Each structure stands twice: as C-alpha cells, then as structure tokens.
Amino acid sequence: MAVVREFTLPDLGEGLTGAEIVRWLVEVGDVVTVDQPVVEVETAKAMVDVPCPYAGVVTARFGEEGAELPVGAPLLTVADSGVSGEPGVGGGSAEERGTEAPVPSGGPGAGGGSGNVLVGYGTSAPAERRRRVRPANGEVAATTAEGPVPVISPLVRRLARQHGIDLRQLVGSGPEGLILRADVERAIPGTAEPVSEERGVREERGERIPLRGVRGAVADKLARSRREIPDATCWVDADATELLAARTAMNAAGGPKISVLALLARICTAALARFPDLNATVDMERREVVRLDEVHLGFAAQTDRGLVVPVVRDAHRRSVEGLAAEISRLTEAARAGALSPSDLTGGTFTLNNYGVFGVDGSTPIINHPEAAMLGVGRIAPKPWVHHGELAVRHVVQLSFTFDHRVCDGGTAGGFLRYVADCVEQPSVLLRGL
User: Fold this and answer.
1) What is the CB neighbour count within 10 angstroms for residue 365?
2) What pLDDT shows up at residue 422?
3) Which of 53, 199, 227, 386 has its CA at a distance of 20 to 30 angstroms from the CA of residue 85?
4) Per the residue annotation, which of 163, 386, 387, 404 is the catalytic one?
5) Is there a catalytic annotation at residue 404?
6) Domain ranges in the chain?
C-alpha cells in the first residue's frame, strides 16, 4: 500500500520566512530519491536548490513558477510504494500501468544520504535512479472531490475565490493537469483573453508588480534604514589621477589584475582603522553603540535580479591583491545567482561604486544595521587646479553617509578627508603599512 508523504517548504535558515519558486526540477510522475533537488527557489538572500527528504513517486506539486510560498507550506507530495513490485499510486503494479519502477542503487546498507539536512527533516536513505511514470493511455487524471487541487499558486486560488470558481471543476491545461491562471480566467463569464502573468496583476489604474524575493528584501531593508537611522551625508571632490597611475603600475608589474574598486576597498579599511567609531552598529534596546573589531566590507553589485551586497569577510586582513581576488569571485557569483546566504550577510561597512552607471554623485541609503557607507561617483576628466596651474585631471566625487548616533560631523569629515587624501596621494597608505 503506497504511503503519501507531504514535503513542505523547509526553514532555509538565516531567519527567512518564505521563498519564491524559480524552477521546478521534477514533474508529477517522476521518481525521486532521497536528497534529490526537486525545486529551485529564491529567498530574500540567495538562490537555493531544495532537496527532498523522501524517496518515491511525485504525485502533486504545489505552486507555479513565480509563486511565493511561506515556510511550512506544501511543496509536493511523494508516494512511497515500498519495494519494487508493490502497488503504486493509483493501484496496480508498475507492469500493469506500463511504467518503470525505481531502480535501487544499493540496498539499505549501501550508505547514508548526502547529508543535505533540512530543518525538521533528516535524510539517510540510499539514492535511486530517476524514472518517469506516465499515466495510462497518456490521459490526465481528473480532479476528484478529495485530495489536493493540482498544483495551483496562491494567485490562482485568490482569482478563483474572487469570482466564485470551483477549482475542482476545472481541467488544467498545464503539464499533468496543472491548473493555470489562464484556465481560471477562461472559466470567468464574459472574460476575454487572459492577462499575462509575466509582469503581475493588471488593473484599471496601471500594473501591480509584487515586491518579493531579492527586490522585496531590498525594499524592506531600505525602508527600515530610513525609519530608524538618522543619517547625514557629506561629500568632496578628489583628484584620482595618481590613484589611476598607481593601478596602471601595479598591473604592469604582472600578476592578477587590480581593480579600482579593490584600491578603494583597501583605502576604506585603512580609514576605518583610523576612525573605528564608523565600523559599528547601534543597539537601541540597550542604548549602546557596538564598535566592531572585524571589518566585513560589503560592496553594491547590480545583477539581473536586482541590487545585492556581497560581503568580503575580514577585509582588514587582506592586501589589495587579496581584496581584488575576493571581489572578483563574489561579483561573478552574484551575476550567476550563485551567492549563498552567508555571502550576503554580516557586513559592517559598505562601499557603493555608483560611478559605473555614469553618474557623479549620490546620497546613498545606509545598509541597515551598519553605521556608514562610502559612495564613489564616476572618474572623469575635468579642469582642476594642480600645483597652482589649471590642468585636466581625473576627478571623482566621494560621498559619505553616516549614522549620526555613532559619531558627530567631525569624525565623519575626518574619515572622508583621509579617504580623499589616499585617492589623491596613494603613498599616504604607505604610512600605515
């Protein structure tokens, strides 16, 4: 007798409360093994492949791609029919249904699971090869009055509820009888062509686009920063000609290429060593400023999924070359959507290079719960007084936003002036090496 097990969205750690389904890795009817990834989800911090803690045949999926599910919501159900040859889902043996049964890769003692332990689940069963189980005669099983409705998103449920549509009376046009939003819209009396799901729910006064995933997390964090942090900003123009010359000399000497961002990161760590009040956070419950010993430097990176802030751990212990290598690694991972939650958390100070967008200045919002952020505009040729004469130099605008609770303007001004001095005369850094 088959035992149907329900696999719910697990707690993915880091205090996350939900995730968005990006891509299903299995179909209804597939045979899955213990620890096999079944769905790719996007949390507020990273893309994650979720492994299934059960082995058996997938009998239902809950949620379309793009749907957002809370932790604890059903993801899929798996029918565990036991050993090969026992009755499976829907009755009858595998031979009677014209399907192939799972082929074990080893017996019960052939080794444990992969160790992909999920909160609330344990995994230890041996792996099996994946087989596709197809319904008899290629027909999709009709929805019955009992059991879950086939794989529908919260958006589809809400739309059906608003128009009084009984989902159990619909025949899904998606794979394996999946009920799509288009199926519900066709069942609404007087409805014309279905509205596209690509961009959200279209209403009379424009288009509503859900804030979820990375975009939703960014919105929440920036709004919290504005509510809680009394920030102030100061800025200064600096002649970056010598900094660019130093970078050119470093790269001409051979070895890994040094980026301007890596040089600015090294300047930031040197400045924070001189002004440690700015490498801090505020604990309002205890009414304390917490000065931090380690510098974990975040840097803003724009990706196809939105703005992310990867974190360079122990930046104060790294050389310019070490910073360049780690920034390059994290940037590539961000573009590929392969950053882990640990790569995106724990920052103590942020460097924001908005000059890559071709703009000169900005007043950045502090990355809560940090206390400060340095913004860097584009480096562009401009007229500049150099040694008493007008010359064309490479000039950059630096902006510094800080939490006024951790320091006064004198400290913030001192930090920014030191950064500008290092940009104009990189040899200033030699004093502290």
Assistant:
1) 17
2) 96
3) 53
4) 404
5) yes
6) 3-80, 231-431
